[in-house]
Amino acid sequence: MKWWQKLSLGLIFILAFAVRIWNVWGQPTFISDEASIGYNAYSILKTGKDEWGKFLPLTFKSFGEYKLPVYIYTVVPSIAIFGLNEFSVRFPSVLFGSLTVLVTFFLVKELFASDNVGLISALLLAISPWHIQASRMALEANLGLFITILAALLLFKAKKNSKFYWPSFFFFVLSFYTYNSCRIFAPVFLLIYFLIQRKDIRIKNIIKPMILGLVLILPIICSGFVGSRQRLYKVGIFSDPGIVNQINQGRGECFKNYPKAFCVLRYNRPLTYAQVFIKNYLSHFSFGFLFLRGSGFSQYNVPNQGVLYFWELPFLIWGLIYWLKSKKEFLILLSWLLIAPLANSLTGTAHPVRAILMLPVFQILSATGIFSSFVFFLERKYFKFLYLVLLSLIILVSFAGFVIKYFIYYPIPAEWNWQMGYLELYQKLEVQEAKYEKIYISKFYGEPHIFYLFYRKFDPSKYQSGEEVERYDREDQWSNVDRIGKYFFVQEPGKISLKPGEILAEPLQEFSFAGGISESLEYRDGRIAFLLLTNEKK
């Protein structure tokens, strides 16, 4: 690398880190999954056990969805340094998200032997709306992406030096313990990679590292892939009752006009599941998701903006055409891109978080298009300078537009989706709680108990013991927490008849109480987040 390339890489990393860490403690607002990660890490730090009392678990029961452990364990030292707060829970994601930008540079350099394409790829990932938003939340997916890219980098290096197979297989296995999508991506990608490189790889060099990988993955196999299985059971297409209803309705209409045998062949579970899976899979490559609207999940992407910049489209096409000339490298990139959405297609349509493993392929292809187009214009001296200026302006303006939209305009209308208000609610109730015997909190926004545990830094030992705690597992395998001390978390606050010495916090949408309104907590746009209700008239 030349000095200016090293300087450029350093500046790109600083940019990536800055845009990911700026006000990360306040925006986006904390959500229940993040609070759960933080409290479980806090519990591990204080007791060595998770919130349910399990010692150093390989899956964290949490709300009943069984979170994978690696991100939670990375949060433990962060909490030890910074304390239990939003910043400490998100800092590992910021750090590894920024490091992903660096690792992407070295990945491209190793695979394509091009520092320049690597630098452009790193820059595009640094300013990627998709990756920036993922790196500003406590997401297992973001760490899973970093580990996957690092494992792939070491795998590519092993082609020249077989000793790199050892750390490569280790990190691929570690990805199994980090994010569920990696459990499909890693084995399929490895299989295809070795098929592509079969003439250049000596089998004896990968046998021992592969055995190590299988040994390290045994705990997951022995547990029956519990995290993945529970997650798929709760959000997968195979548990969607709407699909069964669709089959029954289709058969009912079909029976009116066609033979029964034909209708059974036309409307059945295997065929319908396959159709839904294919539809979900193709949605990841739709123009709307990539360039126009993004997904419908406003928690994870700015509304009405694609996960990629619109100007990347021509360079993506140019990059694809360019790499067609390099058969093996093209197949490796293409297989990465095509494998990445498989896991999420089992759960639903394109989702910015669950499809995050599609990064950084889009950026690599775009970077290739940018660099090869620049080389093309180098031979036309009158256009070279103009091309550079125009392209730089387009990139700068689009990035600035995203930053303004994300940091200034997006937070206010998105506050409801981000479960904003719990910090202010529990701060207010902490001051007043001595006046009340019972404090009721509505479950309208999700899981209010986890915010109580997090913001009050509730003693993990006391919570694990079950003292003054009411919680149980429902039939659908989700876990319910209904009481912690004098705090009661209720599903139907309208059924509560408040007595003297009791207070209820509920959203305006549920308001049906005839008593007095003590106070209200508002979002920044003036909408009411919580009403504090008593039976005392003002």
TrEMBL record:
The chain crosses the membrane at residues 66-84, 91-108, 139-156, 168-194, 206-226, 306-324, 331-350, 356-378, 385-409. The keyword Cell membrane applies. Pfam families: PMT_2 (PF13231). InterPro entries: LipidA_mod_glycosyltrf_83, RgtA/B/C-like. GO terms for cellular component: plasma membrane. One of its GO terms (biological process) is lipopolysaccharide biosynthetic process. Keywords: Cell membrane, Glycosyltransferase, Membrane, Transferase, Transmembrane, Transmembrane helix. Residues 69-220 form the Glycosyltransferase RgtA/B/C/D-like domain. It is found in: Cell membrane. It is a multi-pass membrane protein. The keyword Membrane applies. Its main location: membrane. GO terms for molecular function: pentosyltransferase activity. PANTHER family: MANNOSYLTRANSFERASE YKCB-RELATED, UNDECAPRENYL PHOSPHATE-ALPHA-4-AMINO-4-DEOXY-L-ARABINOSE ARABINOSYL TRANSFERASE. This is Glycosyltransferase RgtA/B/C/D-like domain-containing protein. It comes from Candidatus Shapirobacteria bacterium CG10_big_fil_rev_8_21_14_0_10_40_9. The lineage of its organism: Bacteria, Candidatus Shapironibacteriota.
